[in-house]
Amino acid sequence: MTELDELDRALLRALARDAMQSAGALGRTLGLSQPATWRRIRKLESAGILRGRRLRLNAEALGFGVTVFLGVKLATKGRVSLEDFERAVSAIPEVQRVEHVLGMYDYRLRVVARDLPDFERVLRRRIMTLPGVGEVEANVLLSEERRAGPIG
Amino acid sequence: MTELDELDRALLRALARDAMQSAGALGRTLGLSQPATWRRIRKLESAGILRGRRLRLNAEALGFGVTVFLGVKLATKGRVSLEDFERAVSAIPEVQRVEHVLGMYDYRLRVVARDLPDFERVLRRRIMTLPGVGEVEANVLLSEERRAGPIG
DNA sequence: CTTGAAAAGAACTGCCT
DNA sequence: AGGCAGTTCTTTTCAAG
């Protein structure tokens, strides 16, 4: 287990605010030199805590104005393997996220579509035809807020 | 509306695979020079399609081994404003995401905790005491896959 | 930990096709 | 649009305190 000190946590909080700032700029806000800051970032990366950065794409600007969360129950549990379902669902480009969960549903999917008619097409021709799919429940996204979450 | 050509889409797909690659390396795979690639990235950013990068933090390595999705119905709709609920829920550090949705639930929350006892503490002392909260349904995350989603 | 420096590479600018 | 050449900035590594 990697022990984080207060500087590491401040560093991660600052990077969560702006993932693209340079090690020099980060060090200035932390009271560290550029090499010291850079070494801490490297350490957090090799410890597996910091796993790089991911693109922030604006689905709306790309023409995908509808985001829907689907709760999926598998109908024929045991007859169709989870792997079959996951492989089939991963081939649907409109699916942004596949979450295997425990509880009222077996899977939660995040699906984007251009508009509601487009979403109906995805739902009827792609989702409802997935192997083993049973009950499906939908929630349309109105707005969302992402937060950094707890650090250490 | 910004019109994307095939190069822009290939560029976004490549960046979705590796958000940290340089404009030069990207250009080599696209058959473009470094400045041309860089100018396309700039254009996508100022068009609002590319909204920078965000940190990929490993919650597991930070000691947060439990992720739970909560579906929340507001009990006293109209009596407590959505703003009150959102303000209160945003103050809980364990909440990583707040999604306002339409359907069976009013809000979907992504919550992380160190372990199940820690999650019970968050649920009882933080979530169930939110203003206006009604029925709450939980799904524990087993595994998840993130995909780039459709581009253009 | 720091400062300073050096080399490599990436980002950015201007000009030309 | 795209390429080339050049400048600036950052990253990455080193030596020394």
Task: Summarize the topology.
Two copies of one chain form a homodimer.
Chain A lengths: L5 H12 L5 H8 L3 H13 L3 E8 L8 E9 L7 H9 L4 E9 L3 E7 L2 H12 L5 E14 L6
Antiparallel strand pairs in A: 2-4, 2-5, 3-4
Helix pairs in contact in A: 2-3
Chain B binds a DNA duplex (17 and 17 nucleotides) through helix 2 and helix 3.
Summarize the structure.
Two copies of one chain form a homodimer. Chain A contains five helices and five strands.
SS elements, strand count of chain A: 5
CATH superfamily grouping of the largest domain in chain A: Lrp/AsnC effector binding domain/regulation of amino acid metabolism (RAM) domain
List segments of chain A where confidence is low: pLDDT < 50 over at least 5 consecutive residues: none
Q: What Rg of chain A, in angstroms, do the CA atoms define? A: 21 Å
User: Which chain pair has the greatest contact?
Assistant: A-B, 60 and 60 residues
Task: Kindly identify the CATH topology of the largest domain in chain A.
Answer: Alpha-Beta Plaits
Number of domains of chain A: 2
* Percentage beta strand of chain A: 25-35%
* Helicity level of chain A: 25-40%
Number of helices of chain A: 5
Rounded average pLDDT of chain A: 95
CATH class of the largest domain in chain A: Alpha Beta
Order of strands in the sheet with most strands of chain A:
3-4-2-5
The succession of helices and strands of chain A, N to C, reads HHHEEHEEHE
Summing up helix and strand content along with how strands pair, one would put the structural category of chain A as: alpha+beta
Tell me the major beta sheet of chain A. 4 strands, antiparallel
Tell me the span between the first and last alpha carbons of chain A. 12 Å
Oligomer: homodimer
CATH A-level architecture of the largest domain in chain A: 2-Layer Sandwich
Gross geometry of chain A: elongated
